[in-house]
Amino acid sequence: MTFLINSVANVTCAVIAIVVSSTVKIIGKKNLLIAVQLIIGLFCILINVVTQDILFAIFLSALPVLGLAIGPVNAYAVEIFPTHLRGMAVSLSMMIGRVGSVFGANVAGAMLNAVCEATFYFFGGFLMFCGLLSFLMPGSKKKQTKEAITTKL
């Protein structure tokens, strides 16, 4: 049974990652960021209430899909900051992200020992809050075509 749950979890995670990464051009980076955070936050909360092993494995295996949010965050860092600061902006966003992951892993470990269910409610709620904050991000800048530039002249 453990092998079956692990296999389903890994296949589900791979399918989600492939589908999301192949549709990023269609749905846009802002929508991807919002959707990933809200859906994974909901999955974190639902982990506590699901009674079927397969659903539990699917919800738990979806957590690594949060790695898909790194691309849009770095794209926003490149888009928002001027050219001479872009390298530093991406470096700082990656560094802060790694510091946050170390801090989050330590907090999650301590919380899992003390209050297991509250851990998933806390991180799920935090992810959903971050998803709502992502609505404040600027929309994607559309590149102007040659025709649009000449019509403005």
From TrEMBL:
GO cellular component annotations of the record: membrane
Pfam families recorded: MFS_1
Membrane topology: Multi-pass membrane protein
Bilayer-spanning residue ranges: 6-24, 31-50, 56-77, 89-112, 118-137
Protein name as annotated: Major facilitator superfamily (MFS) profile domain-containing protein
Keyword field: Membrane, Transmembrane, Transmembrane helix, Transport
InterPro entries: MFS, MFS_dom, MFS_trans_sf
Main subcellular localisation: membrane
Protein source organism: Papilio xuthus
Protein's cellular compartments: Membrane
Domain Major facilitator superfamily (MFS) profile: 1-142
UniProt-recorded Gene Ontology molecular function terms: transmembrane transporter activity
